[in-house]
């Protein structure tokens, strides 16, 4: 894992002054730094564009699905959606920078524990690595999120996310830059800690993207039997996160209800405004 570091150190050492007054030394160090700066910048820029387009495509897809399932659900939220897109695209740039740097390092210097040959680790490791990464992400999210609900950090960082009332499919990355930084470092850090096959990493990113959007889109896409059954007792879906946006004081988790339950902050499942109207109507009928 330290290969990349030793490689860099070795390159720098070979550029060391050969004698006193070696005028080329400064030039060699400068060249060494310059040779990797531009590719790193380009990689960060490319990743920013990828994250931005991924956001527009996936949030757009779920916003379209929302319009088909509940026509007019977002009708009065147009100004809010504009702000959600603004903050989300700003977050895309913040997410793209560390991801771009690590992607460059993976490609050029062999950084990270990401592997491409499936037989490098036993097959059982594949699902375990996905679960461990989800659990680690969930743990980081729970504690930083809970901390951001303290008055000062809330005002500085987290109020932007809660300005969406109710949130929409466009709110998936609607964070203030300070909050975006806490989210942007997670995956680039995890790939140095947990060995993951490239396809396991792709699944992790897909789950992260889809759950980030669907938890905010204002309706439940999973069947009721699942949400109200044993799976819903453990996993977080839109019905659970909706209640966080309604009541603030609990349901801080991201994928699992584990930390909320352990720390007594689980508020249980929420209800959507359209579900309330539907059940009220059926009671009247
Ligand atoms: Zn919150
Ligand atoms: Zn939220």
Describe the structure concisely for a colleague.
This protein has 285 residues and is an all-alpha fold. Helix content is 68%, strand content 1%. The protein binds zinc ion (2 copies).
If you had to describe this structure to a student in words, what would you say it looks like?
The protein has about 280 residues and is mainly α. It has one domain (about 45-275). It is about 70% helix and about 0% strand. The protein has 13 helices and two strands, in the order αααβααααβαααααα. It has a two-stranded parallel sheet with strand order 1-2. The longest helix is centred in the N-terminal third of the chain and has 46 residues, at about 25-70. One zinc ion binds near residues 161, 216, 241 and 245. One zinc ion binds near residues 161, 167, 216, 241 and 245.
């Amino acid at each position: 894992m330290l290969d990349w570091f030793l490689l860099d150190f070795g390159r720098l050492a070979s550029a060391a002054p050969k004698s006193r007054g070696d005028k080329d030394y400064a030039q060699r160090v400068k060249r060494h730094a310059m040779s990797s700066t531009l590719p790193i910048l380009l990689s960060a820029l490319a990743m920013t564009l990828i994250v931005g387009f991924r956001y527009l495509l996936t949030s757009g897809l779920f916003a379209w699905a929302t319009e088909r399932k509940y026509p007019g659900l977002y009708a009065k939220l147009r100004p809010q959606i504009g702000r959600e897109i603004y903050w989300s695209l700003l977050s895309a740039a913040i997410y793209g920078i560390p991801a771009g740097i690590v992607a460059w390092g993976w490609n050029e210097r062999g950084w990270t524990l990401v592997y491409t040959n499936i037989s490098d680790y036993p097959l059982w490791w594949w699902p375990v690595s996905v679960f461990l990464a989800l659990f680690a992400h969930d743990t980081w999210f729970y504690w930083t999120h809970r901390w951001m609900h303290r008055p000062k950090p809330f005002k500085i960082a987290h109020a932007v996310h809660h300005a969406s009332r109710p949130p929409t499919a466009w709110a998936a990355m609607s964070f203030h830059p300070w909050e975006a930084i806490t989210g942007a470092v997670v995956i680039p850090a995890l790939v140095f800690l947990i060995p993951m096959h490239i396809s396991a990493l792709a699944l992790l990113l897909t789950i992260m993207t889809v759950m980030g959007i669907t938890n905010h889109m204002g309706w439940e896409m999973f069947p009721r039997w699942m949400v109200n059954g044993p799976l819903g007792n453990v996993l977080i879906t839109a019905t659970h996160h909706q209640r966080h946006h309604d009541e603030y004081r609990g349901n801080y988790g991201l994928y699992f209800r584990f930390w909320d339950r352990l720390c007594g902050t689980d508020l249980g499942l929420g209800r959507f405004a359209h579900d309330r109207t539907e059940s009220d109507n059926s009671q009247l009928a």
